[in-house]
Amino acid sequence: MAKAPPAAPADAAAEPAQVRRRPKKLVIIVVVLAVILLLLAAGVVGLLMLKKNNAGADEHAEEHVAAPVFDLSKPPTFIALEPFTVNLSPEEGERYLQVVLALRIADAKTGESLKGFMPSIRHEINLLLTGKLPSELSTPEGREALADEIVERTNSTLGAPPSKGGRGNGPAGPIQAVLFDSFIIQ
């Protein structure tokens, strides 16, 4: 019976060592699983971001395709109009606008045809300008909107149908764009 008591303390000493090893193994397993989950989450987020960027690139590619391409061997024709000086709609007192603009058209033949319509074109532009407030024309966006309105209005004067979809699709008539040479509000 003398041999039995020494065996009991050895088992008691071995048991706490196993208990100590189990929590360490459990902690290591939990940490490894957490790292794997984080890597998977990062991979999913990366794929989603890549997919979103590719979708944005496709939209930008479509915008670039929709932009008009100029044939440099056949430059467009410009018709310079005489300066316009108009009173703007009253906002903060009397203000006037002096603007020099040019119409961009496809070719010289169209330019010759437009000369007969010039009084009507100038009349429409004059009416459009006098109806504007100084605050509407003080920003670059306001001036771009005015140029688009002039294109629409002058093309409709010439009997062209209104353009569908605005700036990206291009005008439906002979006048392609309006370019401002001078734009002064006083």
TrEMBL record:
The entry's localization annotation reads: Cell inner membrane; Cell membrane
| TM segment ranges | 26-50
Chain residue ranges for the region called Disordered: 154-173
- Where would you say this protein principally sits, based on its record? membrane
Q: Which UniProt keywords apply?
A: Cell inner membrane, Cell membrane, Cell projection, Chemotaxis, Cilium, Flagellar rotation, Flagellum, Membrane, Transmembrane, Transmembrane helix
Q: How does this protein sit in the membrane?
A: Single-pass membrane protein
Q: Which domain of life is it from?
A: Bacteria
InterPro entries to which the protein is assigned, alphabetical: FliL
Query: Which Pfam family is one of this chain's hits?
Result: FliL
Q: Report the protein's function.
A: Controls the rotational direction of flagella during chemotaxis.
Q: Give the UniProt family note.
A: Belongs to the FliL family.
The protein here is known as: Flagellar protein FliL
| Organism for this UniProt entry | Aromatoleum bremense
